[in-house]
Each structure stands twice: as structure tokens, then as C-alpha cells.
Amino acid sequence: MSYSDSFKYSIPMHCIKGVHMLRLGILASTRATDMQAIIDAIESKKLDARISAVISNKKEAYALERAKKHGIKAVFIDSKHKEREEFDKEVAKVLDENKVELILLIGYMRILSPWFVKRYKNRIINIHPSLLPKYPGGMDLEVHAEVLKNKEKVSGATLHFVDKSVDGGPIIMQKEVAIENDENPGTLKQKVQQAEQEIILKAIGLFSKNKIEIRGKKVMING
Fold first, then answer.
1. Among residues 20, 128, 144, 160, which one is catalytic?
2. 114 shares its domain with 173
3. Residue 140 covered by a domain
4. CB of 163 within 8 A of CB of 203?
5. Is 144 an active-site residue?
């Protein structure tokens, strides 16, 4: 196995002698409801991490207001009239200035440039509201509506590393939810969001303890 086929997160050398608190960066275009679960877990000391910056391409995104309410750096970057890579380099500048180690996409309605994906390889994770590889590409209620239209018995959430494909990166973990006979997109969304939050929190904890390893397209959880 070559080095390029395997990746394991390592705590930065400057953190080894002290207590390492994982620095998170969140990219969001909407309400970033799942981010609240992260904030709550951090504030209650259940998660040893900090959100160093929340960045949005939407000035009115509630994600920015949510961040401000908790004293978290909130940054709006206008994407209008900018090439994808040009915009992503502005995002990267903020992430780097705030020493972000793990990037979370939560309701982020943009496709990342190849430059950005390469720069932060194996350090970007995305939450998707379906059991991938089923129903990739869609957002929120449209995914749940499609799931119900096809009369699925179960749905769920998938947390995966981001690569150049759309929702096709190595899967970190998934959680299923049962679909009831009277389910509608709104009720299914609530159930799936709860699943999303559970696996996001679990994965952040594992990542901070160096227990996530990528081997090719497979993710191994150590310990």
C-alpha cells in the first residue's frame, strides 16, 4: 500500500505537549441546524473541539447569526461574479488564518473547486440527508420527497469525506431511520437531522483522537 492510498489524521506537532482541542471550520449556506448540536456539545464539555470560524456565501444565512450568538467568528464572503476557485481561495485564507484542522460542510450549497479539495484532502467532511450511494446530489426536502415518492422503508444520514465527485467520497459512517406510513418530507427531515447530528458528533470525537483512517476509498475506525 502506497502512502497515497492511506491517510491517518495526526495531531499537529505544536499540540503534542499540551491539550489538543480540534479546530473546526464550518461552511454553510442555510440555517446550519446541525451546527447547533456541535455548539451545544462543545459548551457542555461533551466534545473537545472549538469552532474557529463559520463561513457563508449567503449574507442572510442564519448560520452566521447562530455563530454570532455564541461568540464564534462569522464571515460572509460574496461569491457573485467570482470563479469557483477564486472564491474558494478567499475561503481558504479565512480557514488558514484561524488554523482550522477539520472543515465541515453543513447545508453548503456550493460545489468545491478541485483546488480546494486537493488543498484540504481528507480534511473536509460533508453530511448528506440520505443513505448514500442512494439519492446523491440533492438538498434537504427534495431528497426526502424523492425517498418517500419511491416508497422506501428506511432512509438516514451519511457522513463522508469530500473528494472531486459529488457525494461520492469515502463514507465515514451512516445512520438509518425508519420511515412510517404517514411520513411526509417535513417529519422525515426532523428524524434524519437527528441522525445527522449523532454521527457528526461521533465523527468529530473520533477525528480528534486520531481514530479515523482512510485506505483508498474505505474509512477505517480504529478503536
1. 128
2. no
3. yes
4. no
5. no
